[in-house]
Write a structure and sequence with these properties.
The structure is a single chain. The protein has 3 domains: about 240 residues, monomeric porin ompg (Porin); about 180 residues, no CATH class; about 240 residues, Beta Barrel (Porin), CATH 2.40.160. It has 9 helices and 34 strands. The termini are far apart.
């Protein structure tokens, strides 16, 4: 048979790959194989999966220009945008948006949103010749599908080879047996070959190492199908990164990382830099000691005043410092500067207080206030805090001795050296953040967006009371939001979007209420109220939300009644919440949300099942990313604080239906929740509990070493 140009090109690629294997014979490293996205959006080879997964807590993204082999004759171009998230160490989930403008079966071309899941079979020991097993599904939901398949796959690593074989049930992809091999020539170069039940493919993948110490990898995949008559190579370009940088709050710091410099106010090494200590390394003595055992001189009152002034200088508000019976040091404070995570402020206060504690005081009590309301208390031995700040190896000892609870001890027996200083009242904060709405896979266009900027002003008035005014300024939008276009109704002019007064009340140690009144949104005035009960250690939470609003133009009334229950599994920073009732859009039903935190980034998947006010049953599913859009340390709260959002959200959802095309863009099951809500403002984005604190003690230490020792 004569060699055609495509065949010759494929053989040339194979020869090149074989040569690389020979050249790499003495340089292949022993590290594990690097997992990456296939051109289908699940972790795999080229078009077939492996039994490996997206790394837990990471997101992989990929763009590919590959044409689907079953549709290739009808396509001039195809673009696919994919992502995959390692939600657990045994589960990855992802999504894909594919557009093929020239596809002839649908007016305007093919546009498809699809999801995929892969579950690794648990309890299989890792060992020689014991393969990993996984099952997965692609293109779930909806009546119109182009990529659907359900499959099982096994993967085994032998030397520099990773072999995979499996069986797919189709009907659109991988109907029958499939298999492939990855060859690791270098840590950054892999040779790939597979049979995907329709075609035999060969290719290579390049994965860069971490760039400049940042845990981000770039991916390039090149693929050619041996039986493709045109034989044009197809490409994939991707990015791999962790969902959240955890600030060393999970694993003990490595010695190399411990040696990273931190700034110290006095007695530092040349240049004002003092190295932190490695675990197990003894504390230095004399003038080089990082944490002093007591103030150099002065009476106890002067020392407590010095501690108070030191914390006030760092921006902490509503400060009171005192001593109680039995050698107790009490510090009451409000943190308005380290708002990405309440543990940052707690770590800085604890470290400074332990460092400056007068002689004779041996236990520490921190009382956390929010908007002037005392809501949480942490107690620990001062010696344990000091030892932990110097040596991370004492983490377990501190974990056993620290106590945290919303059951406050009160002021009885405590002598404060002065009234509260550095008050937060009438000190406004201006929060600036973008608002992004996207509509992906619409009938008219593949993707539409509306980008706005929102200045959000908060003014504390008295204990628990805050006035809030929010404006919305549209900055940029796609053509579908122009006058006369389908999405014009979703674009509002620049306007005052919210004007409300909120009053938070602590009814009991585990019960709080938040009452709000005013302009809820630009065209509706009324009340928006919340009641939150979090008994015990915070594992369970119950919430009621009620709203009553009147439209300022139509005078139509709107009532919201919602009840929610949340279960939290602290070891994984995982929560499951169900909400039921009547939502903002007058639809009734329920929603279920599964959320997991990775550092300060939360990833959620959710499902909605409601009946509209015209008695239409609607199902929808979506994903949401939430993270602080701000610096870890904000500017000082006085006199006006300019900052970013403590919790910025981006969500994308689609309706799920078996009767036709999936719909996007329709607002259903809207749970009205202003930025000033109990879970975010008072409970550290629903993470203020003893279990979360003990799990993330290293976060406290990291914050103190980074910021607590600076001027």
């Amino acid at each position: 048979m004569p060699l055609t140009t495509p065949t010759l090109r494929s053989f040339t690629l194979l020869f090149f790959c074989s040569s690389l294997i020979l050249l790499a014979g003495t340089t292949v490293q022993s590290e594990e194989f690097h997992n990456a996205l296939s051109l289908q959006g699940f972790t795999g080879i080229l078009n077939t999966p492996t039994a490996t997964l997206t790394s837990e807590g990471h997101i992989y993204t990929l763009y590919s220009d590959q044409k689907e082999n079953s549709l290739r004759p009808q396509l001039k171009r195809e673009d696919s945008y994919m992502f995959s998230i390692g939600l657990f160490d045994l589960l990855e989930m992802g999504g894909r948006f594919t557009e093929a403008p020239s596809y002839s079966y649908i007016n305007g071309g093919l546009r498809d949103l699809s999801a995929n899941f892969k579950l690794q079979v648990p309890f299989i020991p890792r060992g020689k010749y014991i393969p990993q097993l996984a099952v997965g599904a692609q293109d779930l939901g909806g009546k119109i599908n182009y990529l659907r398949t359900v499959y099982a796959v096994a993967t085994e690593e032998i030397w520099r080879f990773r072999l995979s074989a499996g069986y797919g049930n189709g009907p659109d992809r991988m109907k029958g047996g499939f298999g492939g091999v990855e060859v690791k020539t270098f840590d950054w170069l892999y040779l790939l070959a597979e049979y995907d039940t329709r075609e035999t493919n060969v290719g290579l993948r390049l994965v860069t190492p971490e760039l400049f110490g940042i845990p981000v990898n770039l991916q390039v995949t090149i693929k050619s199908a041996l039986n493709d008559k045109q034989g044009s190579p197809e490409y994939g370009f991707g990015l791999q990164m962790p969902l959240g940088y955890d600030h060393h709050n999970r694993q003990p710091l490595a010695k190399a990382e411990e040696a990273a410099p931190v700034q110290k106010a006095e007695g530092s090494s040349p240049g004002g830099v003092q190295p932190a200590l490695a675990p197990g390394q003894p504390a230095p003595t004399g003038s080089e000691q990082t944490l002093s055992s007591s103030p150099a001189a002065g009476d106890r009152r002067a020392a407590l005043l010095e501690l108070r002034d030191r914390l006030a200088k760092d921006g902490f508000q509503n400060l009171r410092v005192g001593e109680g019976e039995g050698g107790l040091l009490v510090v009451e404070y409000e943190n308005g500067r380290y708002t990405s995570n309440e543990l940052d402020g707690m770590g800085i206060v604890a470290g400074i207080a332990a460092d400056m504690a007068p002689t004779g005081l041996d236990s520490l009590r921190l009382v956390l206030r929010k908007k002037g309301i005392a809501i949480f208390e942490v107690s620990a031995p001062i010696s344990g805090v000091k030892a932990f700040m110097v040596d991370a190896g004492s983490e377990e000892k501190l974990r056993d001795s620290i106590k945290a609870t919303p059951e406050l001890s009160g002021d009885r027996g405590v002598h404060f050296v002065s009234e509260a200083v550095n008050p937060a009242w009438l000190r406004p904060s201006l929060v600036l953040y973008p608002e992004l709405k996207t509509f992906i896979g619409m009938e008219n266009t593949p993707a539409d967006y509306l980008l706005s900027i929102r200045p959000d002003l908060y003014l504390p008035l008295w204990k628990g009371a805050v006035a809030n005014a929010r404006l919305d300024f549209p900055l940029s939008w796609s053509d579908s939001f122009d006058d006369g276009q389908p999405l014009r109704g979703s674009r509002q002019p620049s306007q005052l979007d919210r004007l409300m007064l909120f009053q938070a009340i602590r009814l009991a140690p585990t019960l709080m209420a938040d009452i709000g009144a005013g302009m809820i949104v630009h065209d509706s005035n009324g009340t928006l109220n919340e009641l939150l009960w979090q008994p015990g250690d915070g594992t369970h939470r119950f919430r009621l939300r009620q709203a009553f609003a009147v439209n300022s133009e139509t005078h139509a009334r709107n009532e919201v009644y919602l009840g929610a229950y949340r279960y939290r599994y602290a070891p994984l920073d995982l929560s499951l919440e169900a909400t039921v009732g009547r939502f903002w859009s007058r639809d009734t039903g329920f929603t279920v949300e599964l959320k997991r935190f990775f550092g300060d980034t939360a990833f959620s998947i959710y499902y909605k099942d409601v009946r509209s006010d015209v008695d239409e049953r609607i199902h929808a599913g979506g994903i949401q990313l939430s993270f602080p859009l701000t610096l870890r340390r904000e500017m000082s709260p006085s006199p006006v604080q300019l900052k970013g959002s403590d919790e910025w959200n981006y969500a994308q959802e689609t309706e799920i239906t078996s009767k036709g095309s999936n719909q996007v863009g329709r607002a259903i099951a809207i749970n009205p929740q202003p930025a000033f809500n109990l879970g975010t403002v008072f409970y550290n984005r629903d993470r203020l509990s003893e279990a979360y604190l003990k799990l993330n003690l290293l976060r406290l230490r990291d914050a103190y070493l980074r910021y607590g020792l600076s001027d």
